[in-house]
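Allow me, if you will, to draw on your knowledge of protein folds for a short while. I am sending you one protein, given as its amino acid sequence and as whole-number tokens for its backbone shapes. Kindly check, if you would, that the fold set down in the tokens agrees with what the sequence suggests. The record follows directly beneath this note:
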Amino acid sequence: MGRERLIMVHTGRGRSRDELGQGLVEVLVAMVVFAIVVTSIVGMLVSGTSITTLAKERTIAEQGVSNQIEAIRALDYKFVGTTTGNPSGSIQSSVAFAGVNSEDLGEPATMTTSVRFASADVPGSALTGADYKKVTVTITRNNDSKVLASAVTYVSPKLQASQTTGTVQATVTDIGNNQAQSGTLLQDVPVTLTPPAGLNPPVPNGPESDVTDASGTVTFGGLTPTTGAQLYTVGIASADLPAFYTQIAVPGFQLSPTQILPQSIQVYQPVTLYVTLKNPDGSNWVGTANITVTAGSGGTNYQFNNVSFTSAGTPYAITRQGPAGAPLLPNIDYFIAVQATNVVPVSDDQVVPASGVYPATVASDLTYTFAETMTPPAMGTLDVTANRPGSSACRTGATITVRDGSGTTVATGTTSTVAPYDVQLQVLANATYSVTARGGGSPARTGTVSNVTPPPNQTTPVAVTFTTGSASTNC
């Protein structure tokens, strides 16, 4: 009983376990609520600070853009351009921006200036594409590339530039695919215009470079006209041409005052044609052949003569338009013809597939192999005798000449001096020939038989009777 009282007294002075747990929960909840409130307040403070900072940065950047545009508008028109761009001029395309009017931006930033030619697009007027200059100034924060401010202005010349200068409009096309009839216009391709030496007034910065727009075109305006043998050149610099591609060289050109001169720059991935020759039994054909390649039906012929084929069977690769020509173009129906001695001529054609979208990162498989069978022609045999008038065979030997329809000699021989006093000559079957016999005497005894057509794998008798000379003597 005493123990029970002691326990009761102790319990009465303290708190139960349930009461202690409940109190702890209340404390924890209060702490969580406090943390949430504090976090929200801190977030609001940080957000407010960020907004204030961004607003300040934008204000300073907008002032910097405005100052740059005003400075550009104060320049002489001919200097409105970048030192490395098109049009060329005195403006740096990219500079560090720290602030204006003693106001520090507080973050590293960059101010970029781009200048492009623009067209007035006045209805009824000539479209030069270089009536004005479009100037874009942008200030970007370096750490996250955020644009803080940007503005565009247009600058016009005091006098229309085309009245005294010329304009070149270069268009870049990929002619190595079938996405369009004449190829695909290419955007964002760097194009370089190189002026001739000795221009007056001179070009301040030498070659000008720019990238093509959505129409595949880049405009070079305000160009000094040429005189005499001076020539401009335009094209894609070798460092700017992607691997696997080639371009058709644009010839140098002269430029007259007020002239708006279009120039076409064509690029493509070149083609390789392979020719391999086999015997009818599938073994490699050995010999020398002449190969004619024709680009398209009725197109230009490219001749490759005396091509050697060995027992190794190595295909002959054709990569150019003739032995020293330009690379072969894709997306063309190529015809080939192969001719060799004692072989039936063969011909074939194939459209080489188009290349992929420019600029391809890997070479397209622009190849085709012409595998041709070299078949010996069907032959016929002419069994020729030469007769004196009266059908008596010539027994001292007569010279026999066989000519084809074009008059070309295809076979010769001499008749035997023993019975049956003939000579057998092999010629292509199913062709038409004339056979001439010539004997001795003065004048010589001769005779001809025309329209002889031997069938394949058969012997055709041909008796030629002398129509000139004495009948009383032998051949």
